[in-house]
Structure formats: structure tokens, C-alpha cells
Specification:
Layout: E1 2-5, E2 10-13, E3 21-26, H1 37-55, E4 59-64, H2 71-80, H3 84-101, H4 117-129, E5 133-136, E6 139-142, E7 177-187, E8 194-196, H5 198-209, E9 214-220, H6 224-239, E10 244-250, E11 253-255, E12 258-259, H7 270-276, H8 279-286, E13 295-297, H9 299-318, H10 338-347, H11 353-373, H12 378-395, H13 402-406, H14 412-430, H15 434-446, E14 449-454, E15 457-462
Parallel strand pairs: 3-4, 3-9, 9-10, 11-13
Antiparallel strand pairs: 1-2, 5-6, 6-7, 7-8, 11-12, 14-15
Helix pairs in contact: 4-5, 5-6, 8-9, 9-11, 10-11, 10-12, 11-12, 14-15
The protein binds zinc ion (ZN).
């Protein structure tokens, strides 16, 4: 496996700390609002990484945290009149629904910051004792000048390095950051009642879940500075080891060429996108360009992705394939099909998704040609099924029965109505009343429903083109 390390800024061979095991931590969402496409892209890209490591036979320990205490959450609590756990439980459940829809594998650990307060307090107390922290009137601060390797991650000059987001108190250095904010409403601590700073949360959780640091720390490129820089600095000073061997960062999501942001009012909730587009299509699209590249969301590109995913399901249709099941993390995997091994090799080159998707496209074209030549060849069909099944595991899409995929966007009531119309049409056909049968077909066509008469009976799909 080759990875691009965003600290060393080069492609490196991945060497795990422990043989055949990889520990990955992905900075997760702050749970005060619904998740947007930026969250979706980060989750989907690093889910692809998760899948590649499973397919390579690694034991993967994957953690993604929830920041469930934070200034933004407190603000939302005031606005909504909901208490902390009501609010954060609500958004965590919503987030997990979105992730499930996008076929993101459930992480092995989903630590919530509020469940690790004791660990955060002991980390801060330790840093204070070692002389890395000092107290001001509004909190405990980290003294960045005490860490000789500060800024070794982001390679920033100190002059660029002003964290204007912090309250302007008399910090010793402009880059110093808050470890603990004094607040009468929160947790008891030896240095005073309060709550943790964001940068401390992740480090304390990583230290509790993993021994001696991570193989891979991942997140959006906007987190490299200050969040990851500050996480790494605390770990270095508290533990004398580096927080992670490799740092991976995904690019921004732009909407029609502009950076997505709340202030520009062009941020897109996953749940809204899922109302319009099939979740597997959204996943396909979000991972179709390289994770480090900035992603430009556009309907034209989404339509192109749909064509490609449709082809996957048309092949499933030709082979009449039902649902596939996803990875079972209790098993060790080793792909058998040539195509999945080829795609895995493509992705092992720091997630070269374009090459892997080209391998998929080529496989589908060839499969269709072979089926044209030998439509009754059972062993060919079994080989193709094996290939598709393993490709679904690797890419995280293509799990559904083909007809379920092509019926996307039809409500349960509509489905009942369609079934009833098909029944009526069958009866009309039996009575040789072809004009009624044609009328029903035309009526359904008006609803964008296409009927296909097969030897097994009439099936239908929605024309989503
Ligand atoms: Zn973090």
C-alpha cells in the first residue's frame, strides 16, 4: 500500500506499527447540525481507505469521533431550548443514518468527547505538571513555544500562524490554544470547573483507544492547521511520541466552483441530496475523484456518475443478481476474482480511484461482450457474479438487487398503485383486450414508469434519466 503523507508531502510505502494491523482515526463531526456534503466526502473517501485495508487482509481498527461539546453546540442549545444530550443524540442519530445510507462501514470506535472528560482532565493536568500549560482568567492554555517541533505538521511560519478564533486574552504566544475553558456549568477539574478545548478532545480519545499512537490520522485539509498541529503537539509533549505515522487529508467540496460554506449559503445537507439522488449514486460520485483533490459538485458530473453506476446494475440485471452483503469485519478477506484484485492494486497506489473505476468500466464492457457470445455459459456467469460481488465490497456500492436500484424515487403508495396497474394489465391481456393493456402501459409511462415483460412476468423500473 502506498499513501501520500501530507506532512512529509510525498508518497510513501505504508509500514504498519504492528504487522497486518492498521489503526486509523478520522476526525468526525461536531454534532450541532445535520451533516453536509463536506462531511459525506470525507467519510466516503476514508471509508474507501478502510475497505482497501480490509481487502488487503489487514485487521483494521477504525475510529471516528463525535465532538459533542463545543461553543457551537452551546449556542444551538440556547437557540433551541434543548439540553446537551437531547441535541447531540439527535444529530448523532441523524449522522449515523446518513452514513448508513452512503454504505460507510460502521467504525470500530465512535468515541464521544463527553465520555472521555476524565481522560482529558488527566492529560491537561499532566501537561500542566510538565510545564507545557499555563492558566489565564478564562482557561488553561497550551504553551506552543515549549514544543520545539510545533508547526512541523503544517510547516507554517509563525507569522501566518495566528489563531484569531480564540478569545483574545493575554496568551504568551499568539499560537497558544485553550486546553480547558472555565465554565461554571460543566465539569469539576483540579484546575477549575469547565469544559475541554476541541484540540484536546481528539488527543485524549486517541490516547485512550490506541497504544502509542496511530498508523493513520485522517481528516479534511482544513483541519491540518490548527487542529491537527495542536493535537500532535499535545501528544508529543505529553507522551514523547508522535500521534500518527501518516497524515492523510481530503480536499474541500466546492459547489459549482465556490467553496461550500454556511456563510455563502451554499452548503448542502446530505439528507437533502439523498432525497433527490440514490444514496449509492451520491457515494459513487463523491468518491469518483481523488480524495486529495478539491471536489467540485455539479449536476453534470453527477449525471455522468449515474450512467456509470447504471451500467454496473444493468450487468447485475443481465445476471439476475439479488443483494450482496457488505464486509464482515470478523473475517479476513482475500479476493478471488481477477478484476477485484486489479482494482485493489489500483487503489493500493494511494487510492487511485480513476484507475480503479476505469478497471471497473472495462470489466463491464468485456462482461457484456462475453455474455453476448455465450449467454448460457453458467461458469462465466458465476465468475462475473464473483467479480461484481468483490467489486461492491471494495468500492462500497452495487449492493442492491438490480430492480431495487432502478426503482429508486418511488414511494410505497406509488409502488402499490403500480403493482395494481400491472395486475389490471395482465388481466386485460388475458382477455385479449389489448387496447386497455396499452392504455395502462401509457398511463404508467406518464409516471415515468417503464414496464418490461419477461419470461418471469412483468417487471418495472423508474426512468430516472
Ligand atoms: Zn480531531
Amino acid at each position: 500500500m502506498k499513501l501520500f503523507d501530507s506532512v512529509k508531502k510525498e508518497k510513501l510505502d505504508f509500514i504498519p506499527k504492528k504487522e497486518n494491523e492498521v489503526c486509523i482515526y478520522l476526525c468526525g463531526p461536531t454534532t450541532y447540525d445535520d451533516a453536509h456534503l463536506g462531511h459525506a466526502r470525507s467519510s466516503v473517501c476514508f471509508d474507501l481507505l478502510h475497505r482497501v485495508f480490509i481487502a488487503l487482509g489487514f485487521r483494521v481498527k477504525f475510529a471516528r469521533n463525535y465532538t459533542d461539546i463545543d461553543d457551537k453546540i452551546l449556542k444551538k442549545m440556547k437557540e433551541s431550548g434543548r439540553n446537551l444530550s437531547e441535541l447531540t443524540d439527535f444529530y448523532i442519530a441523524a449522522y449515523e443514518r446518513d452514513m448508513k445510507a452512503l454504505n460507510v462501514l460502521d467504525p470500530d470506535f465512535k468515541p464521544r468527547a463527553t465520555h472521555f472528560i476524565r481522560e482529558m482532565i488527566s492529560l491537561i493536568a499532566h501537561l500542566q505538571k510538565q510545564g507545557f500549560a499555563y492558566v489565564l482568567e478564562d482557561g488553561v492554555y497550551f504553551d506552543t513555544s515549549k514544543d520545539k517541533s510545533y508547526l512541523s505538521l503544517s510547516k507554517r511560519g509563525l507569522e501566518q500562524n495566528i489563531t484569531r478564533l480564540e478569545n483574545e486574552v493575554a496568551k504568551k504566544n499568539e499560537s497558544d490554544f485553550v486546553l480547558w475553558k472555565f465554565d461554571e456549568n460543566f465539569y469539576d477539574a483540579p484546575f477549575g470547573k469547565g469544559r475541554p478545548g476541541w484540540h484536546t478532545e481528539c488527543v485524549a480519545m486517541i490516547n485512550s483507544l490506541f497504544n502509542e499512537g496511530l498508523d493513520i490520522h485522517a481528516g479534511g485539509i482544513d483541519l491540518l492547521f490548527p487542529h491537527h498541529e495542536n493535537e500532535a503537539s499535545q501528544c508529543r509533549c505529553a507522551n514523547n511520541y508522535e500521534l500518527a505515522s501518516y497524515w492523510l487529508h481530503n480536499g474541500f467540496v466546492n459547489i459549482n466552483g465556490e467553496k461550500m460554506s454556511k456563510s455563502l449559503n451554499n452548503s448542502f445537507f446530505i439528507k437533502d441530496a439523498l432525497n433527490e439522488f440514490h444514496p449509492e449514486l451520491l457515494r459513487f460520485y463523491l468518491q469518483s475523484s481523488h480524495y486529495r483533490a478539491h471536489f467540485n459538485y455539479s449536476l453534470e458530473d453527477l449525471a455522468l456518475s449515474k450512467k456509470r453506476l447504471d451500467k454496473f446494475y444493468r450487468l447485475k440485471q443481465r445476471l439476475d443478481l439479488k443483494e450482496f452483503s457488505d464486509f464482515d469485519k470478523n473475517k479476513i478477506y482475500s479476493f478471488e476474482s481477477e478484476v477485484a484484485n486489479r482494482a485493489l492494486k489500483d487503489l493500493s497506489d494511494e487510492l487511485n480511484i480513476s484507475k480503479a473505476l476505469a478497471t471497473l468500466d472495462e470489466f463491464i464492457v468485456e462482461a457484456n461482450l462475453e455474455l453476448d457470445k455465450e449467454p448460457k455459459n453458467i461458469s462465466l456467469k458465476l465468475d462475473l457474479k464473483q467479480g461484481l460481488e468483490e467489486l461492491a465490497l471494495l468500492f462500497g456500492f452495487g449492493f442492491l438487487a438490480w430492480n431495487e436500484y432502478f426503482q429508486f424515487g418511488v414511494s410505497r403508495e406509488q409502488k402499490e398503485l403500480i403493482m395494481q396497474k400491472i395486475q389490471e394489465r395482465n388481466e386485460a391481456k388475458k382477455m385479449k383486450d389489448f387496447s386497455t393493456a396499452d392504455k395502462i402501459r401509457a398511463e404508467l409511462a406518464q409516471m415515468n414508469i417503464v414496464l418490461l415483460d419477461t419470461p418471469q412476468g412483468t417487471i418495472w423500473e423508474k426512468n430516472n434519466a
